[in-house]
Design goal:
- The chain is mainly beta.
- It has 2 domains: about 80 residues, Elongation Factor Tu (Ef-tu), domain 3 (Beta Barrel); about 60 residues, PRC-barrel domain (SH3 type barrels).
- About 5% of the residues lie in helices and about 40% in strands.
- The protein is built from 2 helices and 12 strands, in the order E-E-E-E-E-H-E-H-E-E-E-E-E-E.
- It has a 6-stranded antiparallel β-barrel with strand order 1-2-5-4-3-6. It has a 6-stranded mixed beta sheet with strand order 10-9-8-7-12-11, with no helix packed on it.
- The chain is elongated, with a radius of gyration of 20 Å.
- The two termini are about 35 Å apart.
- The relative contact order is 0.19.
Length: about 190
């Protein structure tokens, strides 16, 4: 039951009705204007950049200013984007350094066994014998597999690799992750 890599990088979310499910998910960060037609360079924060197409609504900054994409094109590892009503470098520059979001309810469904990072953060982590280890506090993306950072009530954080032998169950409805602690994952108290 090991989760495959969570499919959307989670940077920031807000306005959660239940403090777990965000209303907005970060998909990019606008940098500086590019050219004379109101384009901006955007760093990509999503695993689904192909969904960012002309006509899609994005929401910028902490006030979630609604912006409709007028154009999108690839530039190296970033995207060049423009928005309706922002047709000059001066107008586009007002959006500089803003994080842009999509609505969480507009995210694509994932195959079984895949989760968005925000769905996992805050889950209780239990071992095989139902001993509480802590809460999932952070997910580190590494080259081989994700690493779950569990914050216990006391003591140092626990780092759990998100691999088959360790992650036994993820149950979103029960708000829990059940794990098998392999030797060396938790340091013995001395």
């Amino acid at each position: 039951m090991t989760p495959r890599r969570a499919s959307t990088k989670y940077r920031e979310a807000s306005n959660s009705p239940d403090n777990r499910e965000p209303v907005y998910l970060a998909v990019g960060k606008l940098r500086r204007p590019h050219g004379v037609n109101g384009e901006l360079i955007m760093d990509v924060l999503t695993d689904f950049p192909e969904r960012l197409k002309r006509g899609v609504w994005l929401y910028a900054g902490p006030q979630y200013l609604p912006l409709r994409l007028a154009s999108v094109r690839q530039q190296a590892k970033a995207l060049l984007v423009s928005f309706e009503a922002y047709t000059s470098p001066e107008e586009a520059g007002k959006l500089r350094s803003q994080v842009v979001y999509v609505r969480a309810d507009d995210r694509p469904p994932l195959p079984e066994g895949e989760y968005y990072h925000h769905q996992l953060l805050g889950l209780r982590v239990l071992d095989e014998e139902d001993h509480f280890l802590g809460m999932l506090h952070e997910i580190l993306e590494t080259g081989a597999n994700d690493v779950y950072v569990v914050k216990p009530d006391t003591g140092p954080d626990i780092l759990l690799p998100a691999i088959d032998p360790v992650i036994l169950e993820i149950n979103l409805s029960k708000n829990l992750i059940r794990v098998k602690l392999l030797p060396g994952l938790i340091q013995d108290a001395e």
